[in-house]
């Protein structure tokens, strides 16, 4: 089976690639999970984040944005002591802030899913890529969404983070053309 080369690092990455990456999602909770994980990845490798994913799940109350929005100083202190996650205070505070903004978008659009999918008219973008070298790190779409999220008050949502977020959630399918997962979803 041919898969995207970036996934061949280890079994965890292969499993993520084969079963999650670029699979369209529509559940707000999963969107929020990836928003946290992608923002935590800034400056690090995705492999590091995946290895800590379950620790994040426990530390961040199963990615419950309602609970995270109410985190205060004590919870921030607790998270900063948690060696199982990425202990970056700016990223932790951004996760709390983003939970609040996420809730506001849900109030306005009835779901974050409806909001984010509206940028692509509810249809995934399937890029034609011959190799991993053709995969972009940003696009006009990620620029636009990044700017819109920033206007809404989100933090750690630069265009590269958002492009990765769009790939992770299946809004953009960047599997290379001969990857066995390309047309799976």
TrEMBL record:
Q: Which GO molecular function annotations are given, in alphabetical order? A: DNA-3-methyladenine glycosylase activity; metal ion binding
Name of this protein:
DNA-3-methyladenine glycosidase I
> Keywords of this protein's UniProt record, alphabetized?
Glycosidase, Hydrolase, Metal-binding, Zinc
Q: Which SUPFAM superfamilies does the annotation name?
A: DNA-glycosylase
Q: Which Pfam families match?
A: Adenine_glyco (PF03352)
Q: Does the keyword Metal-binding apply?
A: yes
Q: Which organism is it from?
A: Spiroplasma tabanidicola
Q: Where does Zn(2+) bind?
A: 4, 17, 175, 179
Q: Does the keyword Kinase apply?
A: no
Read off the InterPro entries from this record: Adenine_glyco, DNA-3mA_glycosylase, DNA_glycosylase
Might you name a Gene Ontology BP term for this protein? base-excision repair
The source's domain of life comes to Bacteria
